[in-house]
Design brief:
Serine Threonine Protein Phosphatase 5, Tetratricopeptide repeat; 10% strand; 6-stranded antiparallel sheet; globular; 3-stranded antiparallel sheet; alpha+beta; 27 helices
């Protein structure tokens, strides 16, 4: 059984789960006007607590429409999401108030830009105003989506926003150029590569090749001489590291590591204020030649390189206070489109923020991932004693996960073991919901990490939404991975994991619209996950916003029961063991 500390941490999940099962039919048409009379902000905040209630949404929409001319309402950005709905065409006289409405945040702007009223000039103008309302550094998170908006940027508003934000922030300018590189026309070799992977097709223009190159050229042209010098050093240095993968392909596998380390020893960062692209707070001092390692790839040779860096000391404010030495490792990947990984990690980050805001104590560990050009990019690595893949642990011994926990943390029932069990449960619950929403497949043990505190961390999201391995055969039929050995590390009563997962699912619904907007804006990107079916509609359906909290909690419990030691999960691990030597 969990220790006392475990009970105190996990009790909120059980309490919320119990409360969610209580039947509750709220007469919102009566309550909303009362709350509105007290304070419109109070009334609107009800949606934060009951995001799935359509009667509540309808009652609030009615109040916003009725009071759109009220300056007190115009001071509330979230009210615009109830004004710019599918009925916006009938509200032209009200939409003109958006020109004086207080701007919201970037997430709200993106929701409006992909919402049912996105084509309305007043709504589009207000959405752009929301983007300008954020510091450029914060908008880096949404750059993949913002670049996609260039496709329909007939009035040039998105381009003007890019130019303004890039002029005010070197970080934004650098990250934007990398994002534009990943959407621009590929190099000639991409149309006839030396090695054609299975299912290879020549690149296709999704409508961004020309405009991406044009915007990039103008961003670089407006830089000051000092900014150009900084970008040339930052971009050039990491391009030099990435290009080593192409250089290594001509050597035999036995020679590659030595050649990589020799090449890394032949150059150094051109200045001492460069940063790791996936972690701008990490200032690069040098790369470590002896850390260079080559990885398997069908096309080229992705490489792993570690860096000596300086990062803010624990507790120090960003950009202020003392810095301390650290090491950061990255994979420089060539021949793979990692934009899809970025999309998955964006969703995980949004869930992570929602869980933290609610104080649920659930554990997700998003990692840095940045495309820097066509089919190339940089991925932050969690390695060493802190994080090991479950497969790597399997190579060390034939023990199951429960035995590994016992060896690492002590006997079951000990305080250390139960803390590790608690950490496993809160991470498994969180990743269960994330995996279900993303429909993440190919969940073999090589794609699941385990840290030295018992948390699991999922990596590598090559199959999400509508696609799956084996030509989309959908063999992994469970909503998420909950293998036999995972069930052994959950609590014996099987109480805490279902309760934590139900709480995670309910909290995830509070950010359903931002997540759906984030995914929806990538729909024309040409990513494989959008190549079949109805990915956005199906994502919305998985949130089950038509259900009350009681139904939604019960549904997640049913998914836990269905995934519990499901035979397709075990058989997929078995196939991966036979084909790719991945232990399970």
């Amino acid at each position: 059984m969990p220790c006392v500390k475990s009970f105190s941490v996990l009790c909120p999940y059980v309490l919320r789960d119990v409360l969610a099962q209580l039947p509750l039919q709220v007469p919102w048409r009566e309550y909303v006007p009362i709350a509105w009379q007290v304070d419109p902000c109070l009334a609107l905040s009800l949606l934060d607590h009951f995001p799935a209630s359509e009667p509540l949404r309808a009652a609030l929409e009615s109040m916003v429409v009725k009071h759109a001319a009220d300056t007190q309402v115009q001071a509330l950005p979230k009210a615009t999401l109830l004004l710019a709905t599918a009925k916006a065409a009938n509200r032209q006289s009200l939409l003109r108030y958006l020109s004086i409405w207080s701007p919201g945040n970037a997430a709200q702007g993106l929701q409006l830009l992909c919402g049912p009223a996105a084509g309305d000039p007043a709504v589009r103008s207000y959405a752009i105003k929301c983007l300008f309302n954020e510091p450029p550094e914060k908008l880096v998170f949404f750059l993949p989506q913002l670049v996609q908006l260039l496709r329909g940027d007939r009035d040039g508003a998105i381009q003007r926003f890019f130019f303004t934000a890039a002029a005010h922030s070197d970080l934004f300018a650098h990250q934007l150029i990398w994002a534009l590189n990943s959407e621009a026309k590929p190099p000639e070799e991409a149309f006839n590569p030396e090695v054609k992977r299975s299912g290879w097709q020549p690149p296709k223009d999704t409508g961004l090749w020309e405009i991406s190159a044009r915007v990039k050229q103008q961003i670089e042209a407006q830089m000051t001489p000092q900014q150009k010098e900084y970008w040339a050093a930052e971009g050039g240095y990491f391009e030099q590291v990435t290009n080593l993968s192409g250089y290594l392909y001509k050597f035999s596998k036995d020679e590659r590591r030595v050649k990589l380390q020799e090449a890394l020893a032949g150059f150094a960062p051109p200045r001492q204020d460069l940063y790791v692209p996936t972690n701008p707070e990490a200032c690069v001092k040098r790369h470590i030649p002896s850390s260079g390692a080559c990885m398997q790839s069908a096309a080229k040779v992705p490489i792993l390189v570690a860096f000596d860096v300086e990062v803010p000391a624990p507790g120090a404010a960003p950009g202020l206070g003392p810095r301390v030495p650290a090491k950061v490792a990255c994979i420089f990947k060539v021949g793979d489109d990692i934009r899809q990984d970025v999309l998955a990690i964006q969703v995980i980050k949004l869930l992570h923020s929602a869980f933290e805001a609610a104080g649920l104590g659930l554990y997700l560990r998003p990692y840095g991932c940045l495309p820097t050009g066509y089919e190339c990019g940089i991925i932050e690595v969690r390695s060493g004693a802190e994080h090991q893949s479950r497969a790597a642990l399997g190579e060390l011994s034939d023990r199951g996960l429960h035995d590994i926990f016992s060896a690492e943390f002590g006997a079951a029932g000990s305080a250390a073991f139960e803390r590790a069990r608690e950490n496993f449960i809160v991470s498994e619950a969180a990743y269960a919901v994330a995996s279900y929403l993303l429909q993440a497949k190919d969940r073999h043990n090589g794609n699941i990490m385990l840290d030295d505190q018992g948390h699991i961390v999922h990596i590598d999201f090559g199959f999400i939404l509508e696609i799956s391995p084996g030509g989309n055969m959908g063999f992994e039929s469970a909503a998420f991975k909950l293998s036999h050995e995972m069930t052994q590390c959950s609590d014996p009563t099987q109480t805490w994991l279902p309760a934590a997962a139900a709480a995670a699912a309910l909290q995830a619904r509070t950010v359903a619209e931002p997540i759906i907007a984030t995914v929806s804006l990538m729909a024309e990107s040409g990513l494989p996950c959008f190549s079949r079916g109805a990915p956005v509609a199906n994502l919305r359906q998985r949130f089950h916003l038509e259900m009350g909290d009681a139904q939604a909690a019960a549904f997640m419990r049913s998914q836990i029961a269905d995934a519990y030691d499901k035979w397709t999960t075990g058989f997929y691990d078995y196939i991966q063991s036979l084909q790719n030597k991945i232990p399970y």
